[in-house]
Fold this sequence. Notes:
single chain, mainly alpha
Amino acid sequence: MLNLVYHLWTHRNSVLHETQALNAFSGVTTLRNSIIVEYALGKSSLRRVYSRYFLVRLEALLQKQMDQLKQWFLVIRSGREAIHASTNPFSTNAALRN
Length: 98
C-alpha cells in the first residue's frame, strides 16, 4: 500500500512540476497580460526613476522568471498608484479606507 501511495505522489509531482500545469495554477497568464497593459501605458505618466524598467523590450520581459515578472509589475503598479493617490477616493477618504 505504501508503495502505491508513493507512486501516486511521485506521478502527481511530475505532472505538476515538469509540465506547464504549475504556471496555469499560479496565474502567470494573468500576470503577463497585466504586464502587457502596463507596458502599453508606457512610462510617460511615471516619474523618471521608473524609466529604467522600460529599457527591456516587452518580449524579453515576458520571458523572465515568475518572481522577476511579479517584481516588475509591483514596482510599476505602485508607481502609478502613487501618482494617482491624490485623485483616488480610497486613499483620501477614511471611511472608504476602513
